[in-house]
Amino acid sequence: MLVWPRNERALLSDRLSCCEPLPLEYLGGALRGDHDVTIHDLRIDPPLEQYALSHEPPDLVGVAIPYTTSAHVSREVSREARRLWPNVPIVLGGHHPTVSAEWLDGFAADWVVAGEGGAPLSHLAAELEAGRTPTPVLGLAPYDARTGLERDRRPKPAALNNLPMPDRSLLAHHRQDYFHSIYRPVSLIRFTAGCPYTCKFCSLWRMTDRRYLVKDIDRVLAEIADIDGQNLYVVDDEAFIQPARMLELADAIDKAGVRKRFHMYVRTDTALRRPDVIVRWAEVGLDSVLVGAESMTDEELSDYRKGTDPGQTRRALDLFHANGVKVRANFIVQPNWVDEDFARLSRTVEELQVDMPSFSVLTPLPGTDLYDESRSELISDNPELFDCYHTLFPTRLPLESFYHRLADLLAGASARTTPGVTSGADPSVFYYSDDSAFDEMLRSLRDGADWSRPREPERLSSTG
Ligand code: B12
Ligand code: SF4
Protein backbone atom coordinates (compact mmCIF):
# COMPACT_ATOMS: atom_id res chain seq x y z
CA MET A 1 0.00 0.00 0.00
CA LEU A 2 1.35 3.40 -1.03
CA VAL A 3 -0.01 6.32 0.97
CA TRP A 4 -0.11 9.99 -0.09
CA PRO A 5 -0.59 12.32 2.90
CA ARG A 6 -3.22 14.97 3.45
CA ASN A 7 -2.05 18.29 4.80
CA GLU A 8 -4.98 20.17 6.28
CA ARG A 9 -2.81 23.14 7.17
CA ALA A 10 -1.38 23.55 3.64
CA LEU A 11 -2.08 27.04 2.37
CA LEU A 12 -2.32 25.74 -1.18
CA SER A 13 -5.11 23.47 0.02
CA ASP A 14 -6.70 20.45 -1.64
CA ARG A 15 -9.62 22.71 -2.56
CA LEU A 16 -7.30 24.95 -4.58
CA SER A 17 -5.28 22.21 -6.28
CA CYS A 18 -5.42 18.45 -5.95
CA CYS A 19 -3.30 16.52 -8.45
CA GLU A 20 -2.85 12.81 -8.95
CA PRO A 21 0.16 11.45 -7.03
CA LEU A 22 2.18 10.67 -10.16
CA PRO A 23 5.22 9.53 -8.11
CA LEU A 24 3.14 6.71 -6.62
CA GLU A 25 1.82 5.70 -10.04
CA TYR A 26 5.44 5.35 -11.16
CA LEU A 27 6.11 3.12 -8.17
CA GLY A 28 2.96 1.14 -9.00
CA GLY A 29 4.33 0.72 -12.53
CA ALA A 30 7.60 -0.65 -11.18
CA LEU A 31 5.79 -3.20 -8.99
CA ARG A 32 3.20 -4.14 -11.62
CA GLY A 33 3.01 -7.84 -12.38
CA ASP A 34 4.92 -8.89 -9.26
CA HIS A 35 2.81 -7.37 -6.47
CA ASP A 36 -0.74 -6.15 -5.87
CA VAL A 37 -0.58 -2.40 -5.30
CA THR A 38 -3.10 -0.04 -3.72
CA ILE A 39 -2.62 3.72 -3.72
CA HIS A 40 -4.34 5.32 -0.76
CA ASP A 41 -4.72 9.06 -1.32
CA LEU A 42 -5.63 10.50 2.07
CA ARG A 43 -6.84 13.72 0.42
CA ILE A 44 -9.74 11.71 -1.04
CA ASP A 45 -9.79 8.22 0.51
CA PRO A 46 -10.97 7.55 4.09
CA PRO A 47 -8.56 7.68 7.05
CA LEU A 48 -6.40 4.54 7.42
CA GLU A 49 -8.30 3.55 10.56
CA GLN A 50 -11.54 3.31 8.60
CA TYR A 51 -9.84 1.46 5.74
CA ALA A 52 -8.38 -1.07 8.21
CA LEU A 53 -11.87 -2.02 9.43
CA SER A 54 -12.77 -3.66 6.15
CA HIS A 55 -9.41 -4.68 4.64
CA GLU A 56 -6.68 -7.18 5.38
CA PRO A 57 -3.40 -5.59 6.52
CA PRO A 58 -1.05 -4.79 3.65
CA ASP A 59 2.32 -6.61 3.43
CA LEU A 60 4.29 -3.38 3.07
CA VAL A 61 3.32 0.26 3.56
CA GLY A 62 5.03 3.07 1.66
CA VAL A 63 4.52 6.56 3.04
CA ALA A 64 5.24 9.51 0.75
CA ILE A 65 6.87 12.70 2.02
CA PRO A 66 6.32 14.77 -1.11
CA TYR A 67 7.42 18.12 0.30
CA THR A 68 9.48 19.32 3.25
CA THR A 69 6.29 20.96 4.44
CA SER A 70 4.62 17.54 4.68
CA ALA A 71 7.22 16.08 7.08
CA HIS A 72 4.88 16.36 10.08
CA VAL A 73 1.76 14.97 8.41
CA SER A 74 3.68 12.09 6.83
CA ARG A 75 5.20 11.29 10.21
CA GLU A 76 1.67 11.03 11.64
CA VAL A 77 0.64 8.75 8.77
CA SER A 78 3.58 6.44 9.47
CA ARG A 79 2.70 6.28 13.16
CA GLU A 80 -0.93 5.54 12.40
CA ALA A 81 0.07 2.74 10.01
CA ARG A 82 2.31 1.25 12.70
CA ARG A 83 -0.51 1.47 15.28
CA LEU A 84 -2.98 -0.27 12.97
CA TRP A 85 -0.59 -2.87 11.56
CA PRO A 86 2.24 -3.30 14.10
CA ASN A 87 4.03 -6.06 12.18
CA VAL A 88 3.94 -4.51 8.73
CA PRO A 89 7.21 -2.98 7.43
CA ILE A 90 7.07 0.72 6.53
CA VAL A 91 9.18 2.48 3.90
CA LEU A 92 9.44 6.26 3.41
CA GLY A 93 10.21 8.05 0.15
CA GLY A 94 9.56 11.17 -1.91
CA HIS A 95 11.12 14.49 -2.80
CA HIS A 96 11.86 15.48 0.77
CA PRO A 97 13.93 12.43 1.81
CA THR A 98 15.63 12.62 -1.59
CA VAL A 99 17.07 16.04 -0.88
CA SER A 100 17.31 16.06 2.91
CA ALA A 101 17.93 13.86 5.91
CA GLU A 102 16.52 16.52 8.25
CA TRP A 103 13.09 16.33 9.89
CA LEU A 104 13.03 12.55 9.50
CA ASP A 105 13.21 11.78 13.21
CA GLY A 106 10.21 10.31 15.01
CA PHE A 107 8.70 8.42 12.08
CA ALA A 108 7.52 4.83 12.49
CA ALA A 109 9.58 3.36 9.68
CA ASP A 110 11.97 0.57 8.75
CA TRP A 111 13.36 1.79 5.44
CA VAL A 112 13.94 5.03 3.57
CA VAL A 113 14.18 5.44 -0.20
CA ALA A 114 15.89 8.44 -1.81
CA GLY A 115 15.69 9.36 -5.49
CA GLU A 116 13.81 7.41 -8.13
CA GLY A 117 11.97 4.85 -6.06
CA GLY A 118 10.98 2.10 -8.52
CA ALA A 119 14.14 -0.02 -8.38
CA PRO A 120 14.81 0.19 -4.60
CA LEU A 121 11.16 -0.41 -3.78
CA SER A 122 10.95 -3.44 -6.11
CA HIS A 123 14.07 -4.84 -4.47
CA LEU A 124 12.62 -4.29 -0.98
CA ALA A 125 9.27 -5.88 -1.87
CA ALA A 126 10.93 -8.90 -3.50
CA GLU A 127 13.22 -9.50 -0.54
CA LEU A 128 10.39 -9.23 1.95
CA GLU A 129 8.20 -11.55 -0.08
CA ALA A 130 11.00 -14.12 -0.22
CA GLY A 131 11.31 -13.90 3.58
CA ARG A 132 14.84 -12.48 3.46
CA THR A 133 16.18 -9.50 5.39
CA PRO A 134 16.57 -6.90 2.66
CA THR A 135 20.10 -5.72 1.99
CA PRO A 136 20.50 -1.98 1.40
CA VAL A 137 20.94 -1.11 -2.29
CA LEU A 138 21.52 2.19 -4.05
CA GLY A 139 18.79 4.56 -2.84
CA LEU A 140 17.53 2.25 -0.07
CA ALA A 141 18.74 2.50 3.52
CA PRO A 142 17.46 1.16 6.83
CA TYR A 143 15.53 3.94 8.59
CA ASP A 144 17.81 3.83 11.63
CA ALA A 145 20.92 4.22 9.49
CA ARG A 146 19.69 6.73 6.98
CA THR A 147 23.11 8.36 6.80
CA GLY A 148 23.59 5.90 3.91
CA LEU A 149 21.65 8.29 1.71
CA GLU A 150 24.23 11.06 1.25
CA ARG A 151 23.69 13.13 -1.83
CA ASP A 152 26.29 11.46 -4.04
CA ARG A 153 24.82 8.01 -3.42
CA ARG A 154 21.28 8.91 -4.38
CA PRO A 155 20.26 7.32 -7.66
CA LYS A 156 19.56 9.85 -10.38
CA PRO A 157 16.88 9.18 -12.98
CA ALA A 158 19.65 8.17 -15.38
CA ALA A 159 17.52 6.86 -18.20
CA LEU A 160 13.91 7.94 -18.22
CA ASN A 161 13.09 5.50 -21.02
CA ASN A 162 14.03 2.59 -18.81
CA LEU A 163 11.53 3.56 -16.12
CA PRO A 164 8.36 1.49 -16.26
CA MET A 165 5.23 3.31 -17.42
CA PRO A 166 3.25 4.81 -14.52
CA ASP A 167 0.32 2.55 -13.61
CA ARG A 168 -2.59 4.96 -14.04
CA SER A 169 -5.15 2.20 -13.60
CA LEU A 170 -4.45 2.33 -9.85
CA LEU A 171 -6.21 5.69 -9.59
CA ALA A 172 -8.77 5.32 -12.37
CA HIS A 173 -11.55 5.56 -9.77
CA HIS A 174 -10.34 9.03 -8.70
CA ARG A 175 -9.63 10.41 -12.17
CA GLN A 176 -12.44 12.98 -11.99
CA ASP A 177 -11.33 14.21 -8.55
CA TYR A 178 -7.96 15.58 -9.62
CA PHE A 179 -7.68 19.19 -10.76
CA HIS A 180 -5.20 22.02 -11.00
CA SER A 181 -6.10 25.64 -11.49
CA ILE A 182 -8.44 25.91 -14.49
CA TYR A 183 -7.81 22.28 -15.49
CA ARG A 184 -10.46 19.96 -14.12
CA PRO A 185 -9.98 17.03 -14.32
CA VAL A 186 -6.24 16.99 -14.94
CA SER A 187 -3.58 14.31 -15.51
CA LEU A 188 0.11 14.71 -14.72
CA ILE A 189 2.78 13.54 -17.15
CA ARG A 190 6.55 13.81 -17.36
CA PHE A 191 8.47 14.11 -20.66
CA THR A 192 11.91 15.09 -19.27
CA ALA A 193 13.70 15.56 -15.96
CA GLY A 194 16.43 17.93 -14.86
CA CYS A 195 17.60 21.34 -15.93
CA PRO A 196 20.96 22.70 -17.10
CA TYR A 197 20.50 26.07 -15.32
CA THR A 198 21.60 26.71 -11.75
CA CYS A 199 19.09 28.96 -9.98
CA LYS A 200 20.14 29.44 -6.40
CA PHE A 201 16.72 28.73 -4.88
CA CYS A 202 16.07 25.55 -6.91
CA SER A 203 16.94 21.95 -6.02
CA LEU A 204 15.96 20.38 -9.33
CA TRP A 205 19.20 20.95 -11.27
CA ARG A 206 21.21 19.46 -8.43
CA MET A 207 19.14 16.28 -8.48
CA THR A 208 20.41 15.38 -11.95
CA ASP A 209 23.77 17.18 -11.74
CA ARG A 210 22.49 19.65 -14.36
CA ARG A 211 21.88 16.85 -16.85
CA TYR A 212 18.75 17.07 -18.99
CA LEU A 213 17.11 13.67 -19.36
CA VAL A 214 14.57 13.06 -22.09
CA LYS A 215 12.11 10.36 -22.96
CA ASP A 216 11.95 9.09 -26.53
CA ILE A 217 9.15 10.54 -28.64
CA ASP A 218 7.49 7.11 -28.94
CA ARG A 219 7.51 6.67 -25.19
CA VAL A 220 5.96 10.12 -24.68
CA LEU A 221 3.24 9.31 -27.20
CA ALA A 222 2.57 5.99 -25.45
CA GLU A 223 2.16 7.79 -22.11
CA ILE A 224 -0.17 10.37 -23.65
CA ALA A 225 -2.22 7.59 -25.24
CA ASP A 226 -2.59 6.03 -21.79
CA ILE A 227 -4.52 9.10 -20.59
CA ASP A 228 -8.21 9.61 -21.37
CA GLY A 229 -8.58 13.17 -20.10
CA GLN A 230 -8.10 16.35 -22.11
CA ASN A 231 -5.93 18.34 -19.70
CA LEU A 232 -2.28 17.43 -19.28
CA TYR A 233 -0.07 19.11 -16.68
CA VAL A 234 3.48 18.42 -17.85
CA VAL A 235 5.63 18.34 -14.70
CA ASP A 236 9.02 18.69 -16.44
CA ASP A 237 11.40 21.07 -14.73
CA GLU A 238 11.84 22.90 -18.07
CA ALA A 239 10.04 21.28 -20.98
CA PHE A 240 11.50 23.20 -23.95
CA ILE A 241 15.28 22.93 -23.47
CA GLN A 242 15.76 20.97 -26.73
CA PRO A 243 13.93 22.89 -29.49
CA ALA A 244 14.48 20.36 -32.29
CA ARG A 245 13.12 17.55 -30.16
CA MET A 246 10.14 19.66 -29.12
CA LEU A 247 9.31 20.40 -32.75
CA GLU A 248 9.57 16.69 -33.51
CA LEU A 249 7.28 15.91 -30.57
CA ALA A 250 4.74 18.53 -31.67
CA ASP A 251 4.70 17.03 -35.18
CA ALA A 252 4.30 13.53 -33.74
CA ILE A 253 1.41 14.68 -31.54
CA ASP A 254 -0.23 16.32 -34.52
CA LYS A 255 0.28 13.28 -36.76
CA ALA A 256 -1.12 10.94 -34.12
CA GLY A 257 -4.28 13.07 -34.00
CA VAL A 258 -3.83 13.83 -30.30
CA ARG A 259 -6.02 16.74 -29.18
CA LYS A 260 -5.15 17.77 -25.62
CA ARG A 261 -4.64 20.97 -23.61
CA PHE A 262 -1.09 21.21 -22.23
CA HIS A 263 0.16 23.22 -19.24
CA MET A 264 3.98 23.34 -19.30
CA TYR A 265 6.98 24.94 -17.59
CA VAL A 266 9.28 27.08 -19.75
CA ARG A 267 11.94 29.74 -19.21
CA THR A 268 11.43 33.10 -20.89
CA ASP A 269 14.82 32.97 -22.65
CA THR A 270 14.18 29.45 -23.95
CA ALA A 271 10.90 30.61 -25.49
CA LEU A 272 12.45 33.72 -27.06
CA ARG A 273 15.37 31.81 -28.53
CA ARG A 274 12.97 29.73 -30.66
CA PRO A 275 9.60 31.47 -30.99
CA ASP A 276 8.76 29.05 -33.81
CA VAL A 277 8.64 26.21 -31.26
CA ILE A 278 6.09 28.10 -29.15
CA VAL A 279 4.02 28.92 -32.23
CA ARG A 280 3.99 25.24 -33.21
CA TRP A 281 3.11 24.08 -29.69
CA ALA A 282 0.26 26.59 -29.52
CA GLU A 283 -1.08 24.88 -32.66
CA VAL A 284 -0.96 21.43 -31.09
CA GLY A 285 -2.53 22.36 -27.77
CA LEU A 286 -0.20 24.42 -25.56
CA ASP A 287 -2.83 26.17 -23.45
CA SER A 288 -0.74 27.76 -20.71
CA VAL A 289 2.82 28.01 -19.51
CA LEU A 290 4.37 28.49 -16.13
CA VAL A 291 7.29 30.87 -16.27
CA GLY A 292 9.56 31.75 -13.38
CA ALA A 293 9.61 35.51 -13.93
CA GLU A 294 10.88 35.81 -10.34
CA SER A 295 11.66 39.54 -10.46
CA MET A 296 11.64 42.60 -12.69
CA THR A 297 14.97 43.94 -11.44
CA ASP A 298 18.34 42.92 -12.87
CA GLU A 299 19.84 42.99 -9.41
CA GLU A 300 17.45 40.43 -7.89
CA LEU A 301 17.60 38.21 -10.97
CA SER A 302 21.36 38.16 -10.78
CA ASP A 303 21.26 37.38 -7.03
CA TYR A 304 19.07 34.37 -7.86
CA ARG A 305 21.48 33.31 -10.67
CA LYS A 306 18.38 33.17 -12.87
CA GLY A 307 20.21 34.08 -16.06
CA THR A 308 17.29 36.05 -17.52
CA ASP A 309 16.49 39.77 -17.59
CA PRO A 310 13.26 41.77 -17.17
CA GLY A 311 13.15 42.65 -20.88
CA GLN A 312 13.02 38.96 -21.74
CA THR A 313 10.06 38.48 -19.42
CA ARG A 314 8.14 41.27 -21.17
CA ARG A 315 8.94 39.96 -24.65
CA ALA A 316 8.17 36.37 -23.74
CA LEU A 317 4.76 37.35 -22.35
CA ASP A 318 4.02 39.15 -25.61
CA LEU A 319 5.04 36.04 -27.54
CA PHE A 320 2.78 33.76 -25.50
CA HIS A 321 -0.15 36.14 -25.60
CA ALA A 322 0.21 36.67 -29.34
CA ASN A 323 -0.23 32.91 -29.70
CA GLY A 324 -3.20 32.67 -27.34
CA VAL A 325 -1.15 30.94 -24.62
CA LYS A 326 -2.08 31.91 -21.06
CA VAL A 327 0.79 32.74 -18.73
CA ARG A 328 1.15 31.80 -15.14
CA ALA A 329 4.14 33.86 -14.00
CA ASN A 330 5.67 33.34 -10.61
CA PHE A 331 7.32 36.21 -8.75
CA ILE A 332 9.56 35.93 -5.71
CA VAL A 333 8.72 38.07 -2.70
CA GLN A 334 11.83 38.94 -0.70
CA PRO A 335 11.59 38.86 3.09
CA ASN A 336 13.47 42.15 3.26
CA TRP A 337 10.82 43.99 1.25
CA VAL A 338 9.10 47.13 2.47
CA ASP A 339 5.71 48.56 1.41
CA GLU A 340 7.03 50.15 -1.78
CA ASP A 341 8.40 46.79 -3.01
CA PHE A 342 5.01 45.12 -2.64
CA ALA A 343 3.35 48.04 -4.44
CA ARG A 344 5.91 47.78 -7.25
CA LEU A 345 5.14 44.09 -7.78
CA SER A 346 1.40 44.79 -7.85
CA ARG A 347 1.96 47.36 -10.59
CA THR A 348 4.18 44.92 -12.52
CA VAL A 349 1.54 42.20 -12.55
CA GLU A 350 -1.05 44.69 -13.75
CA GLU A 351 1.18 46.17 -16.40
CA LEU A 352 2.40 42.82 -17.77
CA GLN A 353 -1.16 41.49 -17.93
CA VAL A 354 -0.12 38.24 -16.34
CA ASP A 355 -3.05 35.87 -16.73
CA MET A 356 -2.32 33.81 -13.64
CA PRO A 357 0.11 35.53 -11.28
CA SER A 358 1.58 33.59 -8.39
CA PHE A 359 3.93 34.64 -5.63
CA SER A 360 6.49 32.69 -3.63
CA VAL A 361 8.27 34.03 -0.60
CA LEU A 362 12.01 33.44 -1.13
CA THR A 363 12.38 30.03 0.51
CA PRO A 364 15.61 28.17 1.20
CA LEU A 365 14.27 24.76 0.17
CA PRO A 366 16.50 21.88 1.29
CA GLY A 367 18.83 20.69 -1.46
CA THR A 368 19.44 24.21 -2.81
CA ASP A 369 22.53 26.41 -2.73
CA LEU A 370 20.40 29.02 -0.98
CA TYR A 371 19.66 26.58 1.83
CA ASP A 372 23.28 25.54 2.21
CA GLU A 373 24.50 29.11 2.51
CA SER A 374 21.75 30.41 4.79
CA ARG A 375 20.96 27.45 7.08
CA SER A 376 22.32 29.15 10.16
CA GLU A 377 20.33 32.39 9.62
CA LEU A 378 16.84 30.88 9.50
CA ILE A 379 14.34 32.13 12.05
CA SER A 380 12.54 28.80 12.51
CA ASP A 381 13.06 25.06 12.35
CA ASN A 382 9.42 24.33 11.57
CA PRO A 383 9.30 22.31 8.31
CA GLU A 384 5.76 23.55 7.64
CA LEU A 385 7.22 26.94 6.82
CA PHE A 386 8.98 25.58 3.71
CA ASP A 387 5.80 26.10 1.70
CA CYS A 388 6.84 29.25 -0.18
CA TYR A 389 4.13 31.27 1.60
CA HIS A 390 6.05 31.88 4.82
CA THR A 391 9.32 33.49 5.58
CA LEU A 392 12.25 31.66 7.08
CA PHE A 393 14.44 34.75 6.90
CA PRO A 394 14.13 37.79 9.17
CA THR A 395 11.83 40.42 7.64
CA ARG A 396 12.46 44.15 7.54
CA LEU A 397 8.76 44.93 8.06
CA PRO A 398 7.24 43.68 11.32
CA LEU A 399 6.20 40.04 10.66
CA GLU A 400 2.48 40.86 10.90
CA SER A 401 2.79 43.65 8.34
CA PHE A 402 4.84 41.43 6.01
CA TYR A 403 2.12 38.77 5.91
CA HIS A 404 -0.62 41.38 5.49
CA ARG A 405 1.19 42.89 2.50
CA LEU A 406 1.61 39.41 1.00
CA ALA A 407 -2.10 38.63 1.42
CA ASP A 408 -2.98 42.04 -0.08
CA LEU A 409 -0.75 41.24 -3.06
CA LEU A 410 -2.61 37.98 -3.75
CA ALA A 411 -6.00 39.52 -3.15
CA GLY A 412 -5.19 42.42 -5.48
CA ALA A 413 -3.87 40.15 -8.22
CA SER A 414 -6.95 37.95 -8.11
CA ALA A 415 -9.28 40.95 -8.28
CA ARG A 416 -7.90 42.26 -11.58
CA THR A 417 -10.45 42.52 -14.33
CA THR A 418 -8.28 42.37 -17.45
CA PRO A 419 -5.76 39.63 -17.02
CA GLY A 420 -3.97 38.79 -20.30
CA VAL A 421 -5.64 36.44 -22.76
CA THR A 422 -8.08 35.10 -20.18
CA SER A 423 -10.05 38.36 -20.08
CA GLY A 424 -13.62 38.15 -21.22
CA ALA A 425 -14.81 34.62 -21.80
CA ASP A 426 -12.64 32.85 -19.25
CA PRO A 427 -11.92 35.04 -16.26
CA SER A 428 -10.57 32.24 -14.04
CA VAL A 429 -7.31 33.24 -12.43
CA PHE A 430 -5.05 30.32 -11.63
CA TYR A 431 -6.14 28.45 -8.57
CA TYR A 432 -8.25 31.22 -7.13
CA SER A 433 -11.36 29.90 -8.87
CA ASP A 434 -12.75 28.53 -5.57
CA ASP A 435 -13.59 31.78 -3.79
CA SER A 436 -14.15 30.42 -0.31
CA ALA A 437 -10.95 28.32 -0.40
CA PHE A 438 -9.04 31.36 -1.62
CA ASP A 439 -10.49 33.51 1.20
CA GLU A 440 -9.38 30.84 3.64
CA MET A 441 -5.90 30.93 2.17
CA LEU A 442 -5.77 34.72 2.60
CA ARG A 443 -6.92 34.43 6.22
CA SER A 444 -4.19 31.86 6.95
CA LEU A 445 -1.65 34.08 5.23
CA ARG A 446 -2.58 37.04 7.40
CA ASP A 447 -1.98 34.73 10.39
CA GLY A 448 1.45 33.90 8.98
CA ALA A 449 3.25 35.54 11.86
CA ASP A 450 1.79 32.90 14.19
CA TRP A 451 3.15 30.16 11.98
CA SER A 452 6.62 31.60 12.15
CA ARG A 453 6.72 30.98 15.87
CA PRO A 454 7.67 27.29 15.90
CA ARG A 455 4.70 25.24 17.08
CA GLU A 456 6.74 22.19 17.76
CA PRO A 457 10.32 23.06 18.60
CA GLU A 458 12.42 20.11 17.57
CA ARG A 459 16.04 19.33 17.14
CA LEU A 460 17.28 18.73 13.66
CA SER A 461 18.40 15.22 12.92
CA SER A 462 22.13 14.86 13.38
CA THR A 463 22.21 13.09 10.02
CA GLY A 464 21.36 16.29 8.13
C1 B12 B 1 3.37 18.79 -9.79
C2 B12 B 1 3.96 19.48 -8.60
C3 B12 B 1 3.08 20.06 -7.68
C4 B12 B 1 1.56 19.98 -7.83
C5 B12 B 1 0.91 18.72 -7.28
C6 B12 B 1 1.70 17.51 -6.99
C7 B12 B 1 0.76 16.37 -6.58
N1 B12 B 1 0.82 15.29 -7.23
O1 B12 B 1 -0.05 16.49 -5.72
C8 B12 B 1 1.10 21.20 -6.98
C9 B12 B 1 0.97 22.38 -7.92
C10 B12 B 1 -0.20 21.05 -6.22
C11 B12 B 1 2.30 21.41 -6.07
C12 B12 B 1 2.23 22.09 -4.88
C13 B12 B 1 3.30 22.40 -4.07
N2 B12 B 1 4.60 22.16 -4.39
CO1 B12 B 1 5.16 21.08 -5.93
N3 B12 B 1 5.90 20.18 -7.42
C14 B12 B 1 5.35 19.56 -8.42
C15 B12 B 1 6.47 19.05 -9.37
C16 B12 B 1 6.59 20.06 -10.51
C17 B12 B 1 6.31 17.68 -9.96
C18 B12 B 1 6.04 16.54 -8.95
C19 B12 B 1 6.04 15.23 -9.70
O2 B12 B 1 4.98 14.73 -10.02
N4 B12 B 1 7.25 14.72 -10.05
C20 B12 B 1 7.43 13.52 -10.84
C21 B12 B 1 7.73 12.30 -9.98
C22 B12 B 1 7.74 11.04 -10.78
O3 B12 B 1 8.96 12.43 -9.38
P1 B12 B 1 9.36 12.24 -7.85
O4 B12 B 1 8.55 13.11 -6.95
O5 B12 B 1 10.78 12.52 -7.87
O6 B12 B 1 9.04 10.72 -7.44
C23 B12 B 1 9.98 9.69 -7.34
C24 B12 B 1 10.78 9.66 -6.03
O7 B12 B 1 10.68 10.85 -5.24
C25 B12 B 1 10.29 8.45 -5.29
N5 B12 B 1 9.14 8.57 -4.42
C26 B12 B 1 8.17 9.51 -4.41
N6 B12 B 1 7.25 9.24 -3.47
C27 B12 B 1 7.61 8.09 -2.87
C28 B12 B 1 7.00 7.35 -1.85
C29 B12 B 1 7.61 6.15 -1.43
C30 B12 B 1 6.94 5.33 -0.36
C31 B12 B 1 8.82 5.70 -2.02
C32 B12 B 1 9.46 4.44 -1.58
C33 B12 B 1 9.43 6.46 -3.04
C34 B12 B 1 8.82 7.63 -3.46
O8 B12 B 1 9.92 7.58 -6.36
C35 B12 B 1 9.22 8.38 -7.35
C36 B12 B 1 9.17 7.64 -8.65
O9 B12 B 1 10.46 7.30 -9.09
C37 B12 B 1 7.70 19.08 -8.41
C38 B12 B 1 9.05 19.26 -9.12
C39 B12 B 1 9.67 17.93 -9.49
N7 B12 B 1 10.43 17.93 -10.53
O10 B12 B 1 9.44 16.91 -8.87
C40 B12 B 1 7.34 20.22 -7.46
C41 B12 B 1 7.85 20.19 -6.02
C42 B12 B 1 7.72 18.79 -5.48
N8 B12 B 1 6.93 21.08 -5.32
C43 B12 B 1 7.48 21.80 -4.42
C44 B12 B 1 6.81 22.70 -3.53
C45 B12 B 1 7.68 23.56 -2.62
C46 B12 B 1 5.41 22.77 -3.50
C47 B12 B 1 4.58 23.57 -2.47
C48 B12 B 1 5.01 23.32 -1.03
C49 B12 B 1 4.75 25.05 -2.73
C50 B12 B 1 3.90 25.77 -3.65
N9 B12 B 1 3.57 26.93 -3.19
O11 B12 B 1 3.60 25.37 -4.74
C51 B12 B 1 3.13 23.08 -2.75
C52 B12 B 1 2.61 22.13 -1.65
C53 B12 B 1 1.14 21.82 -1.78
C54 B12 B 1 0.57 21.10 -0.61
N10 B12 B 1 -0.73 20.99 -0.63
O12 B12 B 1 1.23 20.66 0.31
C55 B12 B 1 8.98 21.54 -4.35
C56 B12 B 1 9.31 20.70 -3.11
C57 B12 B 1 10.55 21.17 -2.40
C58 B12 B 1 10.56 20.76 -0.96
N11 B12 B 1 11.72 20.47 -0.45
O13 B12 B 1 9.53 20.75 -0.32
C59 B12 B 1 9.25 20.85 -5.74
C60 B12 B 1 10.41 19.87 -5.75
C61 B12 B 1 9.51 21.99 -6.77
C62 B12 B 1 10.60 22.93 -6.39
N12 B12 B 1 10.32 24.20 -6.57
O14 B12 B 1 11.68 22.64 -5.93
N13 B12 B 1 3.42 20.81 -6.59
S1 SF4 C 1 14.18 27.32 -11.35
FE1 SF4 C 1 13.71 26.43 -13.36
S2 SF4 C 1 15.34 27.26 -14.69
FE2 SF4 C 1 16.05 27.52 -12.59
S3 SF4 C 1 17.29 25.68 -12.18
FE3 SF4 C 1 15.20 25.29 -11.41
S4 SF4 C 1 14.17 24.24 -13.10
FE4 SF4 C 1 16.03 25.23 -13.95
From TrEMBL:
<dbReference type="InterPro" id="IPR034466">
    <property type="entry name" value="Methyltransferase_Class_B"/>
</dbReference>
<dbReference type="GO" id="GO:0051536">
    <property type="term" value="F:iron-sulfur cluster binding"/>
</dbReference>
<feature type="domain" description="B12-binding">
    <location>
        <begin position="7"/>
        <end position="135"/>
    </location>
</feature>
<dbReference type="InterPro" id="IPR051198">
    <property type="entry name" value="BchE-like"/>
</dbReference>
<dbReference type="InterPro" id="IPR007197">
    <property type="entry name" value="rSAM"/>
</dbReference>
<dbReference type="GO" id="GO:0046872">
    <property type="term" value="F:metal ion binding"/>
</dbReference>
<keyword id="KW-0479">Metal-binding</keyword>
<dbReference type="Pfam" id="PF04055">
    <property type="entry name" value="Radical_SAM"/>
</dbReference>
<dbReference type="InterPro" id="IPR013785">
    <property type="entry name" value="Aldolase_TIM"/>
</dbReference>
<dbReference type="InterPro" id="IPR036724">
    <property type="entry name" value="Cobalamin-bd_sf"/>
</dbReference>
<dbReference type="GO" id="GO:0031419">
    <property type="term" value="F:cobalamin binding"/>
</dbReference>
<dbReference type="InterPro" id="IPR034515">
    <property type="entry name" value="ThnL-like"/>
</dbReference>
<dbReference type="Pfam" id="PF02310">
    <property type="entry name" value="B12-binding"/>
</dbReference>
<keyword id="KW-0489">Methyltransferase</keyword>
<keyword id="KW-0411">Iron-sulfur</keyword>
<dbReference type="GO" id="GO:0003824">
    <property type="term" value="F:catalytic activity"/>
</dbReference>
<dbReference type="InterPro" id="IPR006638">
    <property type="entry name" value="Elp3/MiaA/NifB-like_rSAM"/>
</dbReference>
<keyword id="KW-0949">S-adenosyl-L-methionine</keyword>
<dbReference type="InterPro" id="IPR058240">
    <property type="entry name" value="rSAM_sf"/>
</dbReference>
<dbReference type="GO" id="GO:0005829">
    <property type="term" value="C:cytosol"/>
</dbReference>
<feature type="domain" description="Radical SAM core">
    <location>
        <begin position="181"/>
        <end position="396"/>
    </location>
</feature>
<protein>
    <submittedName>
        <fullName>B12-binding domain-containing radical SAM protein</fullName>
    </submittedName>
</protein>
<dbReference type="InterPro" id="IPR006158">
    <property type="entry name" value="Cobalamin-bd"/>
</dbReference>
<keyword id="KW-0808">Transferase</keyword>
<keyword id="KW-0408">Iron</keyword>
